[in-house]
Amino acid sequence: MNVGPTQIREDLIFEQFKIGNVPDFMRSAISITTTTGNDTITYWVLPDVLSVGTNKDYLRTSMSPLTAKKIADLYSCILPTRKMAFQIWQAATVKLNPSPNGPPYDATMLSTERMVFHNKKIQDALTNKILGELVSGHKKDVVISAGLLSYPKNVAIVGWWYPSGQMIQPLNYVSHDRNYKDYSHGIRLINRMVTINGQWHDIYDVLRSKTLSILISDEGSFDATQIYA
After folding, report:
1. What distances in angstroms separate CA 101 from CA 90, 98, 204, one per listed residue?
2. Is 2 a domain residue?
3. Which of 34, 152, 192, 204 has its CA 20 to 30 A from that of 70?
4. Is the pTM of this model over 0.85?
5. Which superkingdom, per the lineage (predicted)?
């Protein structure tokens, strides 16, 4: 079935995650621990961006942030902040070079065909890599951002880091509305429950905290429950 970037495709994608049609290696999260000042946080992130299929045949699925939020809620997860996306890239044991599809830079960037084409390029780059390693650099991250409180109808993206640490995409929450989802967008899920100094916290509470949010946000504290709502 060739379904374009419509709500039909979004609904089909959500249904696949609802029934659990995901690769087995995407069922095990990887812990990331980082310290700021006297506080240490550990959170758990999926090894790759959201994908549909099996270990032998899977597709990284671009989607709107609204669909991503529905899937995150389904799994008691959250999308990363910009700071978390960078922390994940730093921790990744497999850092891939960004590989843009190139022109044309038009509506076809949202097509299923270009999503599949980009997925094939990533798979080729992962030849001989072990499934389940933490992979980054291959997609722009769809993120939550305090800036979206001022642009609530938009999507925020960041990333495509090179192994050198330089990135193609600085944080951008002004260019695209929240129905936009081109082939370069990836959805990374993080478990909502994190530990700080050994104590469990809901990550939404951490992001609201003026003292703790610095662990995972470089935009200050904000109410992330309002993002993509």
Report:
1. 24, 10, 35
2. no
3. 34
4. yes
5. Eukaryota
